[in-house]
Structures are given as C-alpha cells and as structure tokens.
Amino acid sequence: MTSPIDLLRRQVSDLHQELVRYNLVVWTAGNVSARVPGEDLLVIKPSGVPYDELTPENMILCDLDGKVVEGEHSPSSDTAAHAYVYRHLPEVGGVVHTHSTYACAWAARGEAVPCVLTAMADEFGAEIPVGPFALIGDDSIGRGIVETLQGHRSPAVLMKNHGVFTLGKDATAAVKAAVMCEDVARTVHISRQLGEPVPIAQGDVDRLNHRYQTVYGQQPAAR
Ligand SMILES: [Zn+2]
C-alpha cells in the first residue's frame, strides 16, 4: 500500500521537473510544496539539492510551522512562506515559488502585469498583482502573499524585487499558474516594447473568467 504522503512525495518531486521543463528555474532556485490533505503537514523540496537529484524520498515533510517532521535535509529556505500560506488560506493545497525571468522583470519594477490578453482573463481574472518588498527570515513574505492574494482572483503574485509565488487547489494547479504567469509576463513585456497594450473591459474580463473557471475543459462526468 502506498500512503497518501508517499504519493504526494512523488507528485511534488515530479512537479519540480516541470519547473525545469518550462525554463522557470536556474541552479537550485524555485520550489514546489503540497499540503497533506486533512493533516497539518506539507511536503516541500529540500534546500540546495540540484533538480537532477530530487527524488520522492528526499522531499521533506514539515508541519505547518515549517518544522521538519521527516527528512534528512533541511527544507527549502522558503518553507516559512509556504507554511504561512497553508495556515491562513485553508482552500490552498499547493504553492510554487520561482524567479522566472519575465515575471521577475515586472517584479523588479514593482509593476503589475495588466490584464490585456483573453488567456490572462481566463487564468488570472485580473492583473497579476505586486506584493510588498519582504526579506526572508520571518513571516513577512508569507504575510505579503496572503494579504495580496486573499480576495483576489489571481493565483499569482509578483513579490516586489523578488519573484513569483503561485497558489492552487493542489500542487499541479499551482505549477500551472507559475507556467502561465511567466508566459503572459513574457507576451505582455514584448507587447510593451511596441506600444501600450490595450486593456480588456472589466465586464469582458469577468465573462471570460467565469466561463473558463466554470465551463471550459472536460467536465468530471465526461472523463
Ligand atoms: Zn525567491
């Protein structure tokens, strides 16, 4: 029998390879975590271990204060931020952090990515907002993520002068948001080189987002 925690270890380990595949990370930067459903626990990447060496076995199991419950390495240095999100947003089951290039270019200027593409209205339902400048070491990053995204449609925040944090109902959804965030940050950046991108009217953003979030894709009954 494979335990739910073992399945999550594999899922989180595998999802780190998606960060590599989509060019969202360099060296050992970036991390994925997942909440253990029904328990005050999370699974996260070990700190400083190269992506090629990540395995289900070396993922770290922590409590929601970021203390290690099981694991040989120390957890990602961003564990406190992930744990803060899980403590304050019970609907969140996955968190991703990257320093992906184009999103960071917006974060470095402290500028939100405006909602100027239908794909953005679908996925983000709004601009991708900027969170506060925050230093690692206490709850400031986690608090900045929660304060910016609570009540916001966007599952992604650009932490000022730093990088991207994305949230999802599970770790896969959070990775998807990280991939989409970099994609739209890149396209809108390129658009900006040639002029001012044209905003989409709020009513149309609302309609697109509603349709995408409720109608688009395979419905469970059709699977
Ligand atoms: Zn970072």
UniProtKB/TrEMBL annotation:
GO terms for cellular component: cytosol. It is an enzyme of class 5 (isomerase). Pfam families: Aldolase_II. Its cofactor is Zn(2+). InterPro entries: Aldolase_class_II_sugar_metab, Aldolase_II/adducin_N, Aldolase_II/adducin_N_sf. Keywords: Metal-binding, Zinc. Residues 10-189 form the Class II aldolase/adducin N-terminal domain. GO terms for molecular function: aldehyde-lyase activity; L-ribulose-phosphate 4-epimerase activity; metal ion binding. SUPFAM superfamilies: AraD/HMP-PK domain-like. GO terms for biological process: pentose catabolic process. Its EC number is 5.1.3.4. It catalyses: L-ribulose 5-phosphate = D-xylulose 5-phosphate. Belongs to the aldolase class II family. AraD/FucA subfamily. This is L-ribulose-5-phosphate 4-epimerase. It comes from Kitasatospora camelliae. The lineage of its organism: Bacteria, Bacillati, Actinomycetota, Actinomycetes, Kitasatosporales.
